Amino acid sequence: MLLISPLATRRAVPLAFRAASTRATGPKGLSALLQKNPDDVVITFAKRTAMGKAKKGQLKDVPVDELLHALLKATLAKTKLDPSKIDDICVGTCHPPSPLYVSRAAALSAGIPHDVPISTVNRLCSSGLMAVRSISHAIQSGEATLGVAIGVESMSLNPRPTPEVTEIVDQTAGAHDCIQPMGWTSEMVAEAYSVSRQKQDEYAAISHARASKALEAGTFADEIIPIELRGSVISVDDTIRPGVTLESLGGLKPVFPNWGPASTTAGNASGVGDGAALCILTTRANAQKEGMEIVGKWVGSTVVGVEPRHMGIAPIYAIPKLLKQVGLSKEDVDVYEINEAFASQFAYCVEQLDIPMEKINPNGGSIAISHPLGMTGLRQLVTGLAELKRQNKSVLCTSMCIGSGMGAAGIFVNEA
Questions:
Q1: What Rg value do the Cα atoms of the chain yield, rounded?
Q2: Relative to the CA of 410, which of 154, 231, 334, 355 has its CA 20 to 30 Å away?
Q3: According to DSSP H, which parts of 157-233 are helical?
Q4: Which residues lie below 8 Å from residue 292, measured CB to CB, with a gap of 6+?
Q5: Do 162 and 180 meet the contact criterion of CB atoms below 8 Å apart?
């Protein structure tokens, strides 16, 4: 067991909080969350595709619309859901051009009726979670009874564009920082909070080892729905690199040698990948009426803002804020899925949150599995619910940092 001691210091960071989506009134606490009420927003299906390594993997030539089409067709075939009963679809995605047009076209092509509306949402690394949030809010408000949330990204075909701002905007330090490359923010966190290369590689080694073990054991099969693409069935991640060790990580060269301490490498940063994830949400009353299996319950989410150059530390603020909102202690949570954008920020978040690593990313995280931007927020939900089912436990907390200086978190309950 690798023991990693907490950092001794914490620096103050300017922070702009925003309201959590969880209802401010009503019962709170663990016992209240575990109660089953007719108007609960429940999850009746939660799966993801296998992921592909960007530019080199099994999905490298598959555009977003084709990936969505395959996932929706597989979902309808698996669940036998009558698509005419879908009230709304929300797709979280970041960088494909004309995302709403291609998402709408993919849905129609997969057999979704033309009278089922669709939207897209982009809050960068949290986009998948924001899609779940959007559908959940529509159900909570009574505007929808059943909806589908999706997170998707092809980083092979739609890599991050270089954002540009005007000179007058760029003159503000925070504005300048918020459009810088994410690798720069990794180095800024490592520098500001003294996260050593050794510590980063230690956390990365945990992620690689856990993911390799899960891949070998077939653990991910519980959360992956096979999809058919161009005559082939895609059902196993090709992003995981077995055999990665702390020693091999130590031999890698920095990928950003001109920034900060130059401690970020291809082995201790999130992988670049392609993939999609999906969940179906409805009210408990409707699920019971329709005879739908309930696998989980949406509780709520929150978003926060932090200083852009230190965007990676946002889970330190998002998670406690949401736990307070729903009346939970950090000990009440059984599994955490905290995104590993970079080992620099992940290590700092874990140690400042003071959560045992045994509870965090039990099957590895984005450093090992990869981080298709729009997919990750929903992939964490799928992965976390599958793990809770295996452990026969109840509460999942997901969280991630978000480019430009934000963070998000979500709470879910396992009912499988």
A1: 20
A2: 154
A3: 167-170, 173-178, 182-192, 197-217
A4: 44, 280, 282, 286
A5: no
C-alpha to C-alpha distances, 356 to 114, 336, 352, nearest whole angstrom? 48, 10, 11
Q: Token pair of 368, please?
A: 């090992």
Domain spans of the chain, in order of start: 26-159+272-411
Q: Which of 213, 216, 237, 211 is nearest to 225 (CA)?
A: 237
Catalytic site residue 176? no
Nearest to 278 by CA among 149, 117, 415, 105: 149
The predicted-structure confidence for 339-369, as pLDDT tens digits, reads as follows 999 999 999 999 999 999 999 999 999 999 9
Per-residue pLDDT of 168-213, as tens digits, reads 999 999 999 999 999 999 999 999 999 999 999 999 999 999 999 9
Side chain identity, residue 198: Q
Q: Are 67 and 59 in contact (CB under 8 A)?
A: yes
Given a cut of 60, is residue 10 above it in pLDDT? Answer: no
Q: Can you identify the CATH homologous superfamily of domain 26-159+272-411? A: Thiolase/Chalcone synthase (3.40.47.10)
Among residues 94, 349, 371, 397, the one annotated as catalytic is 371
Tell me the C-alpha distance between 41 and 285, whole Å. Answer: 9
Task: State the amino acid at position 44 in one-letter form.
Answer: T
> pLDDT digits over 129-154, tens only?
999 999 999 999 999 999 999 999 99
Burial class (CB within 10 angstroms; exposed 0-12, middle 13-18, buried 19+) of 250 = middle
List the helix and strand counts (H, then E) for the chain. 14, 13
pTM: 0.94
Nearest to 373 by CA among 157, 163, 102, 146: 157
**Is 208 tagged catalytic?**
no
Q: Name the helix (H) or strand (E) containing 84.
A: none
Do 411 and 300 contact (CB within 8 A), yes or no?
yes
Residue of 125, 178, 349, 397 marked active site = 125
Q: Is 125 a catalytic residue?
A: yes
Q: Please say whether the beta carbons of 222 and 237 come within 8 A.
A: no
